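Quick one: structure for this chain?
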Amino acid sequence: MMESKDEDYWNISANKSFNFDEDDVAVLDVPCFNRRSLFGEDTVSEVNFSNVQSELLLNFIISDENLAAILEDQSRNVVVIPKGVTLEEEVKLLRKKVQETSFAPSVGPIIARMVLGKPCSLEIFRSMYDKETLLDEAISSGNGNAILKVVLFLEKTLKKKLFYRLLQTRQEAVNHYINYMATRLKVTECTDLLVFLGRHHEASLLQFSIFVGNIPNIEFKRQRLKKIYNDYFSQPGANTFYAQLVANYLNLLDFQQSQQLTNDQSVLEILFYICSRYKWGDSSVQSYENPFKLAEAHQVSQSQLEWVALNERAKRQAWLDFEHIFEKKAWLNIKQKSFNMHIPIDKTILRLFSLHAPDPVLISFLNKVEDPARRLALARNVKSKKGIIDALVGLKDRTELENYQNTLAAGTEERFYAENALKTFNNKWKSDAIKLIK
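Got it. Here's what it folds into:
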């Protein structure tokens, strides 16, 4: 009786899962479901998760690009047997397909697909030789995307030491990989590789640049950079130039904290801030509160210092401070001062005009222009009437000066200035004529 029941059980079609007769083919009735669903309509798993209500979407597990590559690879693996072929031809087709899927293909077409931006799978490249050949072919292509994709594949499929050794003699691959990792702030991975390659200075500078550019909090940045300084730049054999650079930056962070500046600022921004607080002419201040000392400590050029100071003082209309910016004491006579400017005079005059500098300030800078014709053009650009008159006198163009005088309103200061210039012009002309007669 028991045997009969067992036989009935296995013969019922609803309970039959396998048919071991070679002539029969089991047909599975697969329910229709969302193509992005991984498990279809199953609601009970083997570990009895009976409360699962929602389907697990495939895009949570794999990206669309990788999915497309896998599907394409699978489609290539499907062997289509044409109708009417002989058994011998069918065996040849199957043998060819096995060879294609069992052995790595030529690297050339694979790299070509990468260069064209087409999806492709690299999993078929399993041996070290194949992977090395693939990397060299990617480097030869000169395509950054192809190089990076191969490098990331090698990183995933090789032990770290083998991966580093492979990159050791391939500088271009290292550069792409370092840039990629640094952009994603993977400081540890970048540092490990650079140290393995013996590029310790680059490893320390990379850490420095990443923390400087990506940490807004001054105190946290200060702590991290002090550790980097102690670990790398204060050690024997460290590059003294880089060590001084980092030390200066740490001093700058200390100064920002002392001034209660909440946001990290560049050297030029802090220089602008100091210019607004500095008592110009007081050379006794030897700290960062003196803009000249800050510029000296951080290799700020004279032209940058002058431009920042000029803009800051001009915006505050502190015109008298200009002499402390551009006039320097002479070496031989400390009471004597000389005008010394490192920024283009034309650019300075136009900038002062845009910042609404008064005419006496413009004239003082116009008088520094030695070429009268150039001075005349600048004076007209900044609408300095006295500057135009001075330039015409310098050109000895009495006719043009008379014409310009006639355009000025009677009784104005500029009209009197032009008339006096013409008198001086005429007196000088008479004096020169008497000399010629004699």
